[in-house]
Amino acid sequence: MSQFDFAEAFEQARTAPDVTDRATGLEEADRIGGVALVQARLHGQGAEFCADCDEPIPDARRKAYSSAVCCVDCQGLREGRRNG
Ligand SMILES: [Zn+2]
């Protein structure tokens, strides 16, 4: 998935004139970007709970990285996974 696909799906959903389209669109955005990312966008801030382990994300991290959707530990795991 790419951030662009998610942003596009989210924006289409958010601006849909019909509430059913909006709900369907948000589900689609969920599928692409994950629930945490949708929640984060809707609230204009980072996710409150880690998308991977459901631990609360500290306020300081959410302020520093407004788009963070997972905790420091899981972020490290994600990046480690990506690198090899
Ligand atoms: Zn985590």
**Unreliable parts:** none
- Strand/helix succession: HHHHH
Terminal-residue CA separation: 18 Å
- State the oligomer: single chain
Query: Main sheet?
Result: none
Structural class: mainly alpha
Helix content: 55-70%
Q: Say how many strands there are.
A: 0
Distinct ligand kinds: zinc ion
Which outline best applies? elongated
How many structurally independent domains? Answer: 2
Alpha carbon gyration radius: 14 Å
Number of helix segments? 5
Report the average pLDDT across residues: 79
3D architecture notes:
The protein has two domains: 1-33, no CATH class; 46-84, no CATH class. It is 65% helix and 0% strand. The chain has helices spanning 3-15, 19-33, 35-43, 59-64, 72-83. Helix 1 (3-15) packs antiparallel against helix 2 (19-33) and helix 2 packs across helix 3. The chain binds zinc ion. Residues 50, 52-53, 55, 70-71, 73-74 line the site of zinc ion.
Entry keywords:
5 helices, 2 domains, 84 residues, mainly alpha, binds zinc ion
List the helices and strands and how they pair.
Layout: H1 3-15, H2 19-33, H3 35-43, H4 59-64, H5 72-83
Helix pairs in contact: 1-2, 2-3
The chain binds zinc ion (ZN).
The site of zinc ion has 8 residues, from helix 5.
